[in-house]
Amino acid sequence: MEEKIVVRNLNLWYGNMYILKNISLSIKENAITAIIGPSGCGKTSFIRTLNRMVDLIENARVSGEVIFEGKNIYDPDVDPVEIRRKIGMVFQKPNPFPMSIYDNVAFGLKINGIKDKERINKIVEESLRLTGLWYEVKDRLNENASKLSGGQQQRLCIARAIAVNPEVLLLDEPCSALDPISTDKIENLIKELKRKYTIVIVTHNMQQAARISDYTAFFLNGQLIEFNETKRMFENPRDPRTEAYITGRFG
């Protein structure tokens, strides 16, 4: 598999707090990479460094490299807004905008200057179809998105992220607030989406990581302890700390 993002010697500080410590790994194209580890180990901070969302946190400072399309995204001539368009993010809690279902999906297109109504309609429909929402909402596109169930709202947020045609999707515990049926729908969706996108998912759920990911990275205290193909890591972890975590002995 081709490398989509290469992280080299990445460090992150929030003020004087040393959050990520010398992280190096490669994220493969059209694969699902799971980031696991106990609360507070730096999982969410790590994926926020991959599209410069971390820039929005006061006193954040980064060293090292995140190579995407052959260039370090932290180089001074790189536009973080363009990086965030190409590397989209979906958050833990569904956060639809206070507007209609249609306008949620169309929002990024309009921000990016697309004015052709027919083109917008086509992309909105395609995005909703990709997330399996189209037949559930096609007759109520003008309803406020807040009327959707939690699982539908999360799929809407994924539709909104993919409408602007990113290359990478970062998912920060997208199922943590959802019931098992909604979780199953989101997991199946993620597996479908990897045909078109490179996906990085933060999850606390070991079973979920084992079910859906191709690669897994185990973080502990801001360090990358182990990174491998998911099957190998879960069946034969190299580090005793990895084994202790995935078997539930700590975390």
Strand content: 25-35%
Rg is 18 Å
Terminal CA distance reads: 31 Å
CATH class, anyone?
A: Alpha Beta
Outline the low-pLDDT stretches: none
User: Which topology does CATH recognise?
Assistant: Rossmann fold
Number of helices: 10
User: On the 0-100 scale, what is the average pLDDT?
Assistant: 95
The profile of the biggest β sheet is:
6 strands, mixed
Query: For this structure, what is the CATH homologous superfamily?
Result: P-loop containing nucleotide triphosphate hydrolases
Helix content: 25-40%
Q: How many structural domains can be distinguished in the coordinates?
A: 1
Helix-strand pattern: EEEHEEHEHHHHEHEHEEHH
Based on the coordinates given, report the CATH architecture: 3-Layer(aba) Sandwich
Number of strands: 10
User: What is the overall shape?
Assistant: globular
What structural class results from the helix and strand content?
Answer: alpha/beta
Strand order of the largest sheet: 6-7-8-3-9-10
Can you give a write-up of this model?
It is globular, with a radius of gyration of 18 Å. The strands form two sheets. A six-stranded mixed sheet has the order 6-7-8-3-9-10, with helices on both faces. Strands 2-1-4-5 form a four-stranded antiparallel sheet, with helices on one face. The protein has helices at about 45-50, 80-85, 100-110, 115-130, 135, 150-165, 180-195, 205-210, 230-235, 240-245, and strands at about 5-15, 15-30, 30-35, 60-70, 70, 85-90, 170, 200, 215-220, 225-230. The chain has a single domain (about 5-245), classed as Rossmann fold. The protein contains ten helices and ten strands. The mean pLDDT is about 95. With about 250 residues, the protein is an alpha/beta fold.
